[in-house]
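Q: Entry one of two.
A:
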Amino acid sequence: MANKPQQPPHLHLAEVTASQFLDIWKHFDADGNGYIEGKELENFFRELEMARRGAGVDPSNPTFREKMKEFMQKFDKNKDGRIEMSELAQILPTEENFLLCFRQFVSSSAEFMAAWRRYDTDRSGYIEANELKGFLSDLLEKANRHYDDQKLQEYTQTILRMFDLNGDGKLGLSEMGVKLTTEQFNAIFTYYDKDGNGYIDEQELDALLRDLYQKNKKEVDLKNLSGYKQSIMSLSDGGKLYRGELEIVLCREPIA
């Protein structure tokens, strides 16, 4: 029998901050795959019911399943039987959807890549923590979001918690997308750069990304895929995406 999860954070609050929202997400997305599903989903719904109703909830009771089904019909917008971050933001009373704003820039905006290049001046694929504040400030202004210094500091720390997977205090571009080892990257780039000229075009990038999504067992969302592709292509030189440009997006570590 599975152990009861630790007391979930913040579900009782009338409103949660961006940082608290991330606490909740990380608590219930236990395997870190980007979805609350299966047993995670059952745990989330049970704890949410307890927080909102202040009473014990029995998952074995048929009414629990029925309520959970109604809940999913309301909030599972894409009907895939699981909860993703954008759907959780509609469930929880969040003060603002800063994290969603940031993720939208990450996945679908050429403006994000333009801002990244402005701060990643040495093209290393990393932005230092002290530069991250300015980077986020740029994104917030583009999104017409109001903030003060305290809120900007909270956002900066939240984004680092969310994306700084190796804990080095830097934001890595590869930490926000599909991650490959150097060997994997070299193999897949060579496969798609069939003529060996050192770059691939947009059509080849589309095929490459679809291949990566399938290898990582991620469902291909055509809208997100198109946005991600356009963001990457903003790094290209006249439609030619060179090895070094793609490497800083997809690879865990810069190629020596």
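Q: Entry two of two.
A:
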Amino acid sequence: RHRQFRVRAAWDMNPGAATVAVPKPSKAKPKPALGQSPATATTPARAPPPTHADLFARSSEDQAKKSTYMGFEKWWLPPAPEVKKPRSLYNAASLAYLGDCIYELYARRHFFFPPLSINEYNKRVMDVVKCESQDLLLNKLLGEDFLTEEERDILRWGRNIVSSKTRTRKRAGIAVYNRASSLETLIGYLYLTNFKRLEQMMFQLGFTSGASSQNIADELRSSFQKTTSTSVQSQQPAKR
């Protein structure tokens, strides 16, 4: 005897089964609002230039602050070579070249916490290190009368740098580019001569370090106030 078997096929295995039609996305452009011209509807508004607060904005609050982090002291840059008179050994372009690297390291440390995607991290750093932002920060220092006369002299010295970055100079303008170069020159100069003063200036600009920024900021603020009060007292004439 031959046994008969019945085989049932699933609906998706049956060639004659009905298929479900998936609607295709519409390619039609959205219509402008009533009373709005098509050119106005499609042209995005130009964003305003970033402010100082925008450049240093973080996506969330810092974590708990400590005086040290992973066993390292708060002075975190590699020690500079002992150079008593940098201006007698180096030209302004060499100090600006060094200062550019140090400035970007401060920017990268500032945005390292809280964690960001690499694209967002790079975007925020690039927004701070471009010469237009450096010019904005330098104007902040000058407006707050933070710099000493010696530091202002370094700025004047650094403005006369001759650079081959013609594309950047055309984009930002010669005046903005020269002022940004003068700030990098001052950063390189302070790194070689007075690192604590460099930390004070970078804190004044808004750079922080994430894990240990609060204690460093408090110490730098009190140190700066003591230095200011001491210099004011030394300038006052002695009573007879």
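A: Comment on entry two: The CA atoms of residues 60 and 221 lie 23 Å apart. The two ends are 135 Å apart (CA to CA).
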